[in-house]
Write a structure and sequence with these properties.
The chain is built from 16 helices and 23 strands. The chain is of the alpha/beta class. Helix 2 packs antiparallel against helix 4, helix 2 packs across helix 7 and helix 3 crosses helix 4. The chain binds nicotinamide-adenine-dinucleotide. Nicotinamide-adenine-dinucleotide (NAD) binds next to helix 8.
Amino acid sequence: MNTPQLCPVFVNGEWQELRNVDTSPVYNPSTGEVIALTPMCTAAHVNDAVEAAEAAFPPWWETPPVERARVLFRFKMLLEEKFEEIARCNTREHGKTLIESRGDVRRGIEMVEFACGVPSLLGGETIENVARGIDCETIRQPLGVCVGITPFNFPAMVPLWMYPVALACGNTFVLKPSEKVPLTAMMIARLLEQAGLPRGVFNIVHGGRECVEALLGHPKVRAVSFVGSTPVARYIFETGMRHGKRVQANGSAKNFVVVMPDAEIEHSTRSVIEGAFGCAGERCMASSTAVVVGSASKDALPSLAHAAKSIRVGPTDREPQPDMGPLITRQHRDRVAHLIGTGAEQGAKILADGRALQLNSGGFFLGATVLDEVQNDMTVAREEIFGPVLNVMRANDLEAAIETINGSPYGNGASIFTCSGKSAREFKHRVKAGMIGINIGVPASMAWFPFSGWGDSFFGDLHMQGKEGVQFFTQQKVTTTRWFAEGEGNIWSTK
Ligand code: NAD
């Protein structure tokens, strides 16, 4: 077994290995092996990174947007060249299958492609003659040093939700990737360097709470983008706001998929299964709850149970690839297994039990699980499980299904499978969630649209992605202008 390497920080264009710091293990979840160590940065390390970003800000802001975009175009080309290598690194430290890792990287590249359009995205508004002879215009300017704090579940995509747009808009950036999956973020950062990004414009620190506290409290940090669990998202939002930062914080989720009696059953059950068990359920847009309406249960339930039992689980760091990989850590796997037991104790019926799975690779595996007859007050219905567990709830009609969804404190995604335009329209109109799917299982919005969580799934005003992302990373300036003919406006004239 190789000795795990300590991850360096990236500050002012230098990769630096920190000495005498606490560390946290990075696992290969397929084998349980420790493959790297993440250093726990202190306030002093954070200060070095923020100071480097602050110093790099003035020249980067003065760089014309089209030149900033050219760096991102080169970055995009390098991402394409290294696509497979990045996906493999992602799979090794996260455990998702290679196909899922490729999707993770592809969604991230789309954010870079979006950010490449920055010259037109920064366009302002002008009105001639807001009063006689007076014109008014808006321009968008960058904020300064921005920070990204990211979760473990999309090591490539989530950091790329943030910094391509922030950098394109003229900001400088400090990223703190999840301590559980720092390697993919670092591999991608090396490409930014190769793309010609000036020193200090982009920096990486590592760590946990102490590092995050230092970023939130640093007086030179202007904005904080966060993605992670709701308790931390709420804390980041409140603390960041108290320190006068602009904050966007995405949190946890419980997403519902309604299967109506008139749904096309094969397509809808396949989508529910893919939505629930893709990335082993470690997705903030996982369709973790199927609400089966009326007679739909007759056909849907046997298909769901059968499909879940046929999912092949195994190590993802080798061929042949399984359908589903391990969970991120042993501790998380044990938590999810425990929740399944709690669900059964509280009255849920287990249609497929993933706890029975036995694999001897040393990894953190759990099989696909389906819990039927889940009620609103059960622990499995209230807590985000974030694992390969599909809850099934029953509803008499669409009205009851909407009531169940709207009773959830979260509001990321909700989908309906139906052939009725009327039901679909009703659903879209009344459901309290920010991303709606109609005959789409995972309605995660793409780079050009906001990733629009509601309720306890989001804290802030401006979401990531799309034009809201550009608004988040810029501040507007309004200029009102009047010009005089020579001598006309000279109030000191003696004539
Ligand atoms: P997490 O909240 O444990 O960690 C997220 C980040 O916050 C990490 O960088 C971590 O180091 C840091 N952190 C953790 N505890 C902290 C604390 N007490 N103080 C300060 N910083 C802290 O989340 P996770 O387990 O890495 O990721 C899974 C969660 O992220 C799930 O709840 C999932 O729904 C959510 N998520 C949400 C979205 C979305 O867009 N809504 C997207 C992806 C993941």
